[in-house]
Amino acid sequence: MTPVASFFSLGLSLVAWHQPMKPENATTDKQVSYHRQIRPLVQVHCQGCHQPAKAQGAFIMTDHAALMKSGDRGLAGVVPGKPAESHMLEVMRPKNGKRADMPRGAEPLPEKDIALVEKWIREGAKDDTPASARDTVNADNPPVYGLPPVITTLDVSPDGKLLAVNGHHEVLLFEVGTWKLLGRLVGLSQQVQSLAFSPDGKWLGVSGGNPGRFGEIQVWDVQKRKLKVASSFTGDTLFGLSWSPDSRLIAFGGADNIVRAVDASNGKQVLQQGAHNDWVLGTCFSRDGKYLVSASRDRTLKLTEVATQRFIDNVTSITPGALKGGLQVGLVRPGKEKKMVKASSIAVASTEEKVYEEVLIGGADGMPRLYKIHRETKRVIGDDANKVREYPALAGRIYAMAFAPDGKIFAAGSSLDGAGFLRVVNAEDGKQVSQAEGQVGAIYALAFAPDGKTLFAGGFDGQVRVIDPATGKVLNQFTVLPGGPAAVSAKAGPG
Ligand code: HEC
Fold first, then answer.
1. Nearest CA residue ID for atom 2, ligand 1
2. Tens of pLDDT along 27-36?
3. What are residue 432's DSSP bridge partners?
4. Which of 206, 240, 336, 372 has the greatest number of CB atoms lying within 10 Å of its CB?
5. What spacing in Å lies between the alpha carbon of 60 and ligand 1's midpoint?
6. Mapping DSSP to helix (H, G, I), strand (E, B) and coil, where does residue 36 land?
7. Which atom of ligand 1 is nearest to the CA of 103?
8. Does any ligand 1 atom lie closer than 6 A to the CB of residue 50?
9. Contact indicator for 236, 216 with CB cutoff of 8 Å
10. Ligand 1 atom closest to Cα of 90?
11. Which residue, judged by its Cα, is nearest atom 19 of ligand 1?
């Protein structure tokens, strides 16, 4: 239910970071390159609506061959050597005094980019995609697995029936209990970094992308298993997706140090905050949806007002050394606290319930910490006034955390030298409820079932473990390997 951790590890081959590829200039006499110049433009401006999982106007733009084909109107997108007959070019320019038709609902491309497309078509619209960069995976040609994927993210639907787990190039939907694979949501992103069901259960939000090429936000219709929205941002993968409580907005972080939020119904950006100075890996909304909290490798947790996009405050202390490493996860605390309202010094008149306005953080130093979202006292240099509590550190770096739905206990997962550590902690008094240390591989993803009675953990070994949070025992586990053997095994538990 709660947004799970985003994922980052330089130690894994899954994450290879390159410099974002930028389209080159149109001014030279050099032949225009499809791979280096046209494809990146299309990726940013067109692909969200013209891809196999969502082919608007029946026109696909994700590879060279598809651009040559025609869509609903029967007009070829590109006719090599003939810009005037290429429908793709036609729709990018204003016509009959009306603004350009494409990209639909967005600013037209700058004329220099359109001129680049025109020059490429005039020169014969050649395909110079290197074999290594061809990506032919889609729903009809789903990814083939040699090994199970490293699980970087998972989430349970609010009704408790579906478990969504990242695969390669896709999200896999399993039926909770039978662990049957119910759906494969194949999108454009090779890497799925984070995913979360919307609080109303209708949508599944996904952040990911192709390293060094593009970042992407996907919104899937859970019932229909259809891609509703795909939107590109930045030249690298995106992290730490979270939903606003009203299921309208999606927030996420990027390797460009910026935290963004989009309208989930159309993928349009509604918020951008650039106060971080390192990658933003985790986001969460306050309980009332008015504020966004972002966790960054820059060792700060920042508060942004959603309506104004204004950076409000550092939630954590900004004193150097206060946090020993970058932050990975920021998680808003669900549930309510009971407060005694005293009538006199001895008699309790009533108890009132108040939603928690707290956020749990974790990262490089392995120590979970609970903070108040809003500052109650004036900032004094060096203070850490919002801090509510520190919890005993886990070995290694925390990659994942999840709150039980009532906000009373949380789970934290870490990794050190390939070994995973999982601890369930009482948020109130800091006491350990259970642990599964040493029994599980590196943990990158955690989520509680909506009834709080089971905990799902995933990580390096591609196994989903179904854990009893009260005891830390593994109740069940299965391998995420679509097309592979159905490796469901009831396990008696560790030891
Ligand atoms: C927000 C969604 C969206 C984006 C982004 C978008 N399109 Fe479209 N496009 C559509 C829809 C919807 C249609 C079909 C309905 C129509 O033609 O009006 C369409 C149709 C088309 C068609 C006509 C297909 C046919 O034969 O009917 C072309 C060509 C096209 N788009 C090119 C582009 C190009 C080039 C870009 C990027 C510069 C782009 N589109 C970006 C939504 C989008």
1. 49
2. 557 899 999 9
3. 425
4. 240
5. 9
6. helix
7. 41
8. yes
9. no
10. 29
11. 57
